[in-house]
């Protein structure tokens, strides 16, 4: 019997080439985040110079620059980075446990379940950031658990898991429409939240999301070898003595909680959990490699790419006064079509 914590990754990158590629990608993403973050702090309805921003960061005061930079712009950008990183990791986990390169947290029904729970509460009462997080996480967890229960009789086979998630997502999306129709409250705020926006997010929101992002990265890297084995077919996993369905359940629940937490803070932001893993495979793989990669490398890269995507998108969205979720869809849709076309070629 082979222990999931001692098995070698299914596809090992060539030592030097893979290591250099991994480091270069992380450094490139970090530089993009630095540039994007600088622009995010400098630009807005009131623009500041780089000197003013640096002074506001180093020597906080009662000035307008300090207030806008430290209380509005900096927490918003940090939340954008955390949301993108968390969705990137969740997307990688979902695509691994379903062995579906088109898989995303949205297909597990998690985003729809979390959105439904929050919409119900928003329609009849106001929520603090903490209650918003608890409500959304609970709703997403219930939706994800429902998906797993439906597919349990097939031992969580990737196909049935994907189909079950789609059914659960359709149900909760329909339920959201029913709530919006029947709710007596003004639905404009709910509609705006459903587009996925980071407007008016504070340090409290960032503080609530940080533990999920850190825990997701730590658990993802810790469980990277079971994730690697899940890329094998179930017959091979069984012959190795590897309980694929139990690991699929555990890792799936981790992805569920990560996704639900981001939805609670930023609303449903589509395509990030789908695009980031695709870009990761495109950048890390060489021509001789199959679909699977060592998750010890792909998870951190997916997190950085997701953070970069949402960080850059929110910087642009803020300048245009549009929700970042809409911009992610407008950019992510054509980009995803391009990636699929390139893969087919």
From TrEMBL:
<comment type="similarity">
    <text>Belongs to the binding-protein-dependent transport system permease family. FecCD subfamily.</text>
</comment>
<dbReference type="InterPro" id="IPR000522">
    <property type="entry name" value="ABC_transptr_permease_BtuC"/>
</dbReference>
<feature type="transmembrane region" description="Helical">
    <location>
        <begin position="322"/>
        <end position="340"/>
    </location>
</feature>
<dbReference type="InterPro" id="IPR037294">
    <property type="entry name" value="ABC_BtuC-like"/>
</dbReference>
<keyword id="KW-0812">Transmembrane</keyword>
<feature type="transmembrane region" description="Helical">
    <location>
        <begin position="20"/>
        <end position="42"/>
    </location>
</feature>
<feature type="transmembrane region" description="Helical">
    <location>
        <begin position="202"/>
        <end position="223"/>
    </location>
</feature>
<feature type="transmembrane region" description="Helical">
    <location>
        <begin position="107"/>
        <end position="124"/>
    </location>
</feature>
<feature type="transmembrane region" description="Helical">
    <location>
        <begin position="77"/>
        <end position="95"/>
    </location>
</feature>
<protein>
    <submittedName>
        <fullName>Putative siderophore transport system permease protein YfiZ</fullName>
    </submittedName>
</protein>
<dbReference type="GO" id="GO:0033214">
    <property type="term" value="P:siderophore-iron import into cell"/>
</dbReference>
<feature type="transmembrane region" description="Helical">
    <location>
        <begin position="131"/>
        <end position="152"/>
    </location>
</feature>
<dbReference type="Pfam" id="PF01032">
    <property type="entry name" value="FecCD"/>
</dbReference>
<keyword id="KW-0813">Transport</keyword>
<dbReference type="GO" id="GO:0022857">
    <property type="term" value="F:transmembrane transporter activity"/>
</dbReference>
<dbReference type="GO" id="GO:0005886">
    <property type="term" value="C:plasma membrane"/>
</dbReference>
<keyword id="KW-0472">Membrane</keyword>
<feature type="transmembrane region" description="Helical">
    <location>
        <begin position="158"/>
        <end position="181"/>
    </location>
</feature>
<keyword id="KW-1133">Transmembrane helix</keyword>
<feature type="transmembrane region" description="Helical">
    <location>
        <begin position="249"/>
        <end position="276"/>
    </location>
</feature>
<keyword id="KW-1003">Cell membrane</keyword>
């Amino acid at each position: 019997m082979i222990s999931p914590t001692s098995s070698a990754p299914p596809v090992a990158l060539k030592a030097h080439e893979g290591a250099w590629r991994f480091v270069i990608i992380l450094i490139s993403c970090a530089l993009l985040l630095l540039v994007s973050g600088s622009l995010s702090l400098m630009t807005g309805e009131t623009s500041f110079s780089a000197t003013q921003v640096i002074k506001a960061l180093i020597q906080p005061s009662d000035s307008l620059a300090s207030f806008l930079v430290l209380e509005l712009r900096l927490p918003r950008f940090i939340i954008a980075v955390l949301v993108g990183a968390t969705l990137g990791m969740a997307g990688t986990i979902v695509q691994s446990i379903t062995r579906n390169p088109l898989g995303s947290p949205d297909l597990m029904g998690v985003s729809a379940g979390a959105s439904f729970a929050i919409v119900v509460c928003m329609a009849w009462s106001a929520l603090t950031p903490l209650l918003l997080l608890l409500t959304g996480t609970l709703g997403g967890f219930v939706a994800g658990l429902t998906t797993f229960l439906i597919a349990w009789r097939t031992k969580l086979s990737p196909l049935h898991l994907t189909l079950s998630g789609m059914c659960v997502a359709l149900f909760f999306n329909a339920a959201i429409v029913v709530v919006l129709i029947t709710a007596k409250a003004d639905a404009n705020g709910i509609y705006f939240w459903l587009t996925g926006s980071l407007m008016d997010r504070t340090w409290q929101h960032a503080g609530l999301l940080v533990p999920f992002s850190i825990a997701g990265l730590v658990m993802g890297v810790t469980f990277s070898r079971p994730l690697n084995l899940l890329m094998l077919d179930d017959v091979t996993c069984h012959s190795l003595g590897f309980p694929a369905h139990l690991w699929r359940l555990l890792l799936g629940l981790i992805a569920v909680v990560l996704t639900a937490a981001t939805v609670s803070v930023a609303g449903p932001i589509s395509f990030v959990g789908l695009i980031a893993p695709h870009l990761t495979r495109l950048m890390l793989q060489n021509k001789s490699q199959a679909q699977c990669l060592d998750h010890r490398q792909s998870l951190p890269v997916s997190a950085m790419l997701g953070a970069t995507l949402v960080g850059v998108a929110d910087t642009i969205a803020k300048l245009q006064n549009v929700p970042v979720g809409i911009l992610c869809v407008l950019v992510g849709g054509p980009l995803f079509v391009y990636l699929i076309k390139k893969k087919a070629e």
